[in-house]
Amino acid sequence: MAVNQTLDQTPRPAADNEIRVEPGQSVQEAVDRAGPGATVLLAEGTHSGNVVVTHPGVTLKGAGAGRTILVPGPVAPSTVAPLHDAPPDVVSGIVVHSDTGIGEVAVEGLTVRGFSGAGVYAHTVTGLRLHDVEAVDNVVWGLYVRESSGIDVSRCRGENSRYGGIALAFCARADAVVADSECVGNAFGVFVDNSSRARVLRNRCHGNAAGMLLLHQVYPGEPEGGVRDCLVSDNDVYDNTLAAGGDDPEALGAAGPPISGVGIALIGTERVSVVGNRLHGNQPGGFSVMPAALVVDSSAEWGGSDAVDNSLEWNTITGNSPLDVRISVDVTRQRLANNVVGASEPESLSGRAAEGTQ
Fold first, then answer.
1. What is the CA radius of gyration of the chain?
2. For 23-43, what is each residue's pLDDT tens digit?
3. Boundaries of domain holding 103
């Protein structure tokens, strides 16, 4: 009987409201059969084909990142909007989307590798949990969450994607936590793109062009945005030396401005607190429009806004090149306190900033 079940390509119930999928069986068939509120258990090994989750309350759970691996194979169709900054025919590994909205979906314990779009693409989800998920060598994005809220990204990894390793895009009230995760080899490690109410905590971002980018920019045909009321705290952001941007459509960060050697950038943000982070060893590997490890600048020329009312406190920003900190907007509109800073513009930011607004 055990031999027959192994050869059978039909996923089997594992317990009440659970379906277990072995390598070689169809993950998409299991997700479709499971229905709302079910758990789909992906056994250890390599599973092929992308997966589209359209039911609420579904948990897609592997045996652990690096143990359960999802790679390209049969393509499941989806009604999700085209992926930002990607050709229309790309395929994302796991898509979470329903035309009527979807809630309380979890993806846990697996690696998504080698897809032409994103590793995970979640759109209009209320209540999303990504835990112990690796998105590795996916062409455009790693973990990409758009127009969603109630987002929990923890102990994840985004590696070697053209744009963001972990990205929140147009999540106006994200109520998001991105924590205890690692991003390496991307244009932007953690990218908060026109999203507000996000907490970015205890992450490691290294080997990117920019470790963390928080950006308010207006894109033609996209929703109005803004980046407000966010906390960036207790992160290690180091050795970001890649070069991104330029006209080559295959290049890292294609079509964007040249960026390299950036640790944390606040561009057009409002009421963002950057507290207790450690930035070191960030230096450009090519020309960069942001020549510092920590950058605060305006996005008004791109249709965004000036950066105002941001707080930079208790950060250690030393050993970066050519500058540790560069603030190109009105410094009196920011709060700076108790930072350890090396070379800076303005020069008055160098050393230990005194309590109060500089």
1. 21
2. 999 999 999 999 999 999 999
3. 49-310
